[in-house]
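User: Show me a protein chain along with its predicted structure.
Assistant: Here is one chain, sequence first, then structure tokens.
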Amino acid sequence: MNIGEVRIAEDSDFALLKVLLTRGDGWALEYSSGMTKVWTRPAENSHFRMIRLKTVFADVTAETLYDVLHDPVFRKTWDKHMLSSSELGVLNPNNDLSYYALHCPAPLKNRDFVLQRSWLQTAQEYYIINHSVFHRDFPNKKGFVRGLSHLTGFLITPLDKGCSLGYVAHSDPGGQLPVWVTNKLSTILAPKMVKRLHKACMNYNNWKNLHNPNQKPWLYPEQISSKRIEISDCVKPSRETSGDNTPVEDESTLSENELACQLDEISLE
């Protein structure tokens, strides 16, 4: 789906994620440690490279990983970069809109996103994808740089022991970042994210048993209580009529050594 496009995800939208994870054309290996590998490749519509990650969690079931990636309450306990999140509403039981604000390590500015998220469960795999959209209740906010997700997705595949995880991020962080930032994010932050996610999976079942264990609206649509999204709320006005004169944050003079040091210090706890 294109940025700004609000509609029910189709099979072809999920298939694109699998294509990006299975084809080797254009991907350059940037990081390899144990079961985790990270690649990048140029993107047609962005100066920032796409990121692809693959790993295996031998001691985590696919069902648990799927629940951890979905559960918005549990996310507050493990996603240390999240400043806030809000559910805006649903299109149908497998497509919703949300707002997500994240803390970025200094000297970067904090980012936020308005996203349509779509998910699909088949007999063999679990898919979660998102892309950026507009919603009139969440315009650009002071103190944040509005980022764009062209396609971000997770593909979870059950294995005889545990599961495999494939992750693709085709994003534009907004502002005026130097291009080398993406490579730093791929080689430092992406592997840290995997370790934090694995730790969250190991804690999830015990936590969930104490926090509404049967409440899983991503599995049981009858539990969904969010309002229905009005498509008319998702049409972005022109810059002139909206009065949006948010200045572009210029981070192009960031020091690579300074940022690398800050990223290295990010804790997994």
